[in-house]
Amino acid sequence: MRISYSGLESFSNCPAKYKFQYIERIKTAKSKEAVFGTLIHECLRFFHNPSKSIPISEDELLKYFTEKWNSDIYKDKQEEAFAFHQGVNILKKYYLQNQSQEFNIVNLETLFSVFIGKDLHQITGRIDRIDKLEDGTFEVIDYKTSKKMPAQADVDNNFQLSIYYLGIISRWPKIKEEDKPVKISLYYLKHGEKLSAIRTKKYIEETENKILELISEIEKSNFEPRMNPLCDWCQYQPYCPLYKHKYIKEEKTLSGEQIKEIIKEYFKIKSEQGENNKRINELKKEIDHYCDENELDRIFGDQGYITRLLQQRFDYDAKRLKEILKPLGKWNDILTIDKAKFKKVIDSLPHNIKEEINNIKTLKKEFKVISAKKIN
Q1: How far is CA 145 from CA 82, 91, 142, 190, 192, in A?
Q2: Torsion sign across C-alpha atoms 357, 15, 308, 227
Q3: d(Cα 344, Cα 359) in Å, to the nearest integer?
Q4: What Rg do the C-alpha atoms of the chain give, in angstroms?
Q5: 61: how many CB neighbours lie within 10 A of its CB?
Q6: Is 282 helix (H, G, I), strand (E, B) or coil?
Q7: What domains can you pick out in the chain, each with its CATH number?
């Protein structure tokens, strides 16, 4: 499989988005946040352009930004003015912090490609900037235009940074051979702060195992949508079972107003604490029927929304499970199997053992559960 870090991150956040973007390759317009981020990256590449014999001035940098600015992506002048002001502030702050610095820039916008898993899988990516520091250490710098900065502990364990390290040692194998540390930094431009972590070859196996585990999940996935904080900004809402309701043009057996009334009655009955359970079940059937006909997993009414989530139950071959776990000293941990304990044991195992256990499980049953959330 050929996959980028962005693809792995997309699948981790939402398997359905991964399917729309990388398997079905549905084209969508770039979000205004993505367009803004791309322009800031272009401006910083212009600022650090090694072909320029004379350093770029602040006026030249801001002029470049202004000429490349695209006002068409913003819904109104106020929103555009706010974004433009943010961009100017970012570039002014960056210029002030970096104009007098002497950088030994090895490369800008570096593409990398890494083969793992007996060369069966190719991991690709792009690094914003690579510097060589005075002590001979390489520093990888990734620019971020996001508002929030993570804690240092999150940076120390950042999966993206570990993949960048694989990219660096693939490009320059001598770093791995001599086990030279690589400094990898996230530069949060809105704050003018750089958070860094160190990677050495001891991270290689752990990173490759995590990548292989994700690829294995992708290969077996049925690409169910997964709710996450990025849903509100997702460009694939028109195709997602959780959001398609917003884009339905033709109603089938029920109109939009009718389903709202059904949801209204559903919440009224649900609040009566157990009374009218029979009617609730009838409403669930109508909701299920409507969702099946429209291929939806989420529907909205004036009082809130209702979500259907796929649930799966698995059985394991107990004899084979014992043969696998007993030599590892893990069998006694799950003699009385409860789901939380079982998951904890499985999550602690190496990738190859997880694969072996996955191969002995069988789907016991699959069903969808309705959950409701009241919003007013």
Answers
A1: 15, 11, 10, 6, 10
A2: positive
A3: 18
A4: 26
A5: 20
A6: helix
A7: 2-215 (3.90.320), 241-311+370-374 (no CATH)
Quick: pLDDT tens for 60-96.
999 999 999 999 888 889 999 999 999 999 999 999 9
Distance, C-alpha 327 to centroid of its chain = 36
Q: Which amino acid is at 88?
A: V
Bridge pairing between strands 182-188 and 138-144: parallel
Chain mean position to CA 65 = 28
Which helix H or strand E contains 288, and what residues bound it? helix 277-294
Task: Number of helices (H) and strands (E) in the chain: give both, helices first.
Answer: 14, 9
| Residue type (1 letter), 155 | V
Whether the Cβ atoms of residue 70 and residue 35 lie closer than 8 Å to each other: yes
Helix/strand/coil for 107: strand
Single pTM value for the model: 0.67
- Cβ neighbors of 155 (< 8 A, separation 6 or more) are 161, 186, 195, 196, 197
User: 313-325: b or e for each residue (b if 16 or more CB lie within 10 Å)?
Assistant: eeebeeeebeebb
Pairing assessment for the beta strands 298-300 and 304-316 based on DSSP bridges = antiparallel
Q: Is 255 helix (H, G, I), strand (E, B) or coil?
A: coil
Give the CA-trace dihedral at 174, 175, 178, 180, to 10 degrees.
Answer: 160
Residue whose tokens read 């084209």: 27
Give the pLDDT confidence of 188-239 residue by residue, as tens digits: 999 999 999 999 999 999 999 999 999 999 999 999 999 998 898 899 999 9
